[in-house]
């Protein structure tokens, strides 16, 4: 359930007509709902109830400072994958002590900065990384809290590009090597082992793969305890899917209950790293129909957003709902491909959408709050879209549209 609903024949973002936002900020423009972000985050915290937990929002899903700030104010932790994301969390008022640092190859400078600000822990993905973190921590005379990211080799049953917990994926330490990696970590004087984690993929629509992964992690927890290595937390990563079309992913509540049941009295804090399930349906991408084109085979609606603004349809053939901000019946009723102006055949936002359109109409691409703006680019020297946050009947520009001069400013000609 989100806060983009129709009222009196037009789409609203919370209490603001989307037409008003388009008029004020121009298109294409990302619009986020604060209430939806808050609701999605608190769905996790409520579900966890009194069980010790840390909900670390995956910054990669949407790293806008205002988005991070809304979550920080609710007490969220953050899952980061770069020092850039760390700086964003800090700038947004996030608590470094609630930050977990994932990623397959953290650089020394990134590790040093994370130690300097005192993050919660590093999710370590290889023995090589163990050695690297040990080296940096020793140089700084610090203890680094670590958790090992285990690749449990379970099938997340999602798109192959966003599946991360299979043997053939680059992520994590293989299950078979896990115990020996922990034993090695235990020998390193500047590391403090505190947890275990996994992240098996994104947009999961079933709970079973999570529970299979959890079984494997709990097996490790118990085996490690026998060896005298007591873990304090179990981090199941992110990955809970959202409804883009017909899929009905489990609610955080159902997921959390199943997880808590499995943990069976073990004294473990539960950590989750949700990204998409918090941000995706908290955002839409608003775009304007520029012109309608019929080549005799196909109707195209050429809009002012393109693959550079939202790459998910082109990259994963992902389906996102496209709705008319003010539905009409007096335009051209047809089966449209909604395409952008970029010079690529793959530049589409949706195919075969039955709509009634006129040039100038506004469309909203739903579920665009996660992996939308963050994956945008300047391809074709297009400027990045503006981002706006709606908060009840208020709206705020939270990132201005880029200008061409900003694009040009960081480039240099050769001296002669
Ligand atoms: C390590 C890690 N944690 C969390 C996430 C967030 O995943 P999602 O947005 O599917 O919840 C990702 C992205 O897939 C990830 O790689
Ligand atoms: N970018 C992907 C999700 C990747 C998750 C990051 N590990 C998507 O849009 O679906």
Overall shape: it is globular
DSSP summary: helix tally:
12
Whole-number mean pLDDT: 96
Helix content: 25-40%
Uncertain residue segments: none
Number of domains as seen in the coordinates: 2
Any idea what the CATH superfamily of the largest domain is called? Alanine racemase
Return the CATH class of the largest domain.
Alpha Beta
* Level-2 CATH architecture of the largest domain: Alpha-Beta Barrel
> Taking Cα atoms only, what radius of gyration do you get, to the nearest Å?
23 Å
Query: Tally of extended strands?
Result: 21
Q: Under CATH, the topology of the largest domain is which?
A: TIM Barrel
Beta-strand share of residues: 25-35%
Alpha-beta content class: alpha/beta
Sheet with the most strands? 9 strands, mixed
Span of the ends, CA to CA: 58 Å
Bound molecules: pyridoxal-5'-phosphate, lysine
Keywords:
416 residues, alpha/beta, Lyase, Ornithine Decarboxylase, Chain A, domain 1, TIM Barrel, nine-stranded mixed sheet, eight-stranded parallel β-barrel, 12 helices, 21 strands, 26% strand, binds pyridoxal-5'-phosphate, binds lysine, De-COase2_pyr-phos_BS, pyridoxal phosphate binding, lyase
């Amino acid at each position: 359930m989100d806060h983009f609903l129709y009222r009196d024949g037009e789409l609203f973002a919370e209490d603001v007509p989307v037409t008003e936002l388009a008029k004020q900020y121009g298109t294409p423009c990302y619009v986020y709902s604060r209430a939806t972000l808050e609701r999605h985050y608190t769905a996790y915290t409520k579900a966890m109830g009194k069980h010790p937990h840390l909900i670390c929002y995956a910054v990669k899903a949407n790293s806008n400072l205002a988005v991070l700030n809304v979550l920080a104010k609710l007490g969220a932790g953050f899952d980061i994958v770069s020092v850039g994301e760390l700086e964003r969390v800090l700038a947004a008022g996030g608590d470094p002590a609630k930050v977990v640092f994932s990623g397959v190859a953290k650089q020394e400078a990134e590790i040093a900065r994370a130690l300097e600000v005192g993050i919660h822990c590093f999710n370590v993905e290889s023995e090589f990384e163990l050695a690297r973190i040990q080296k940096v921590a020793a140089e700084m005379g610090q203890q680094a809290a670590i958790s090992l990211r285990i690749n449990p080799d379970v099938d997340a049953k999602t798109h192959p590009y966003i599946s991360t917990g299979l043997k053939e994926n680059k992520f994590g330490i293989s299950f078979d090597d896990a115990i020996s990696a922990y034993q090695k970590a235990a020998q390193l004087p500047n590391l403090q082992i505190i947890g275990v984690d996994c992240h098996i993929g994104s947009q999961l629509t079933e709970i079973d793969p999570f529970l299979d992964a959890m079984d494997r992690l709990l097996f490790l927890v118990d085996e490690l305890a026998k060896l005298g290595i007591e873990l304090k937390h179990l981090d199941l990563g992110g990955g809970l899917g959202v409804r883009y079309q017909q899929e009905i992913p489990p609610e955080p509540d159902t997921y959390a209950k199943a997880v808590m049941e499995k943990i069976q009295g073990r004294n473990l804090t539960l950590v989750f790293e949700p990204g998409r399930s918090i941000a995706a349906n908290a955002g839409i991408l608003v775009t304007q129909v520029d012109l309608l084109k019929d080549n005799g085979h196909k109707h195209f609606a050429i809009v002012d957003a393109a693959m550079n603004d939202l790459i998910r349809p082109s990259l994963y053939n992902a389906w996102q709902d496209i709705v008319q901000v003010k539905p009409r019946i007096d335009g051209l009723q047809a089966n449209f491909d909604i395409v952008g102006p970029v010079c690529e055949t793959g530049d589409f936002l949706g195919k075969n959408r039955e709509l009634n359109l006129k040039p100038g109409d506004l469309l909203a691409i739903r579920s665009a709050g996660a992996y939308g703006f963050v994956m945008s680019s300047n391809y074709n020297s297009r400027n990045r879209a503006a981002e706006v946050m709606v908060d009840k009947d208020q709206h705020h520009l939270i990132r201005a549209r880029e200008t061409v001069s900003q694009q040009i400013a960081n480039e240099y000609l050769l001296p002669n």
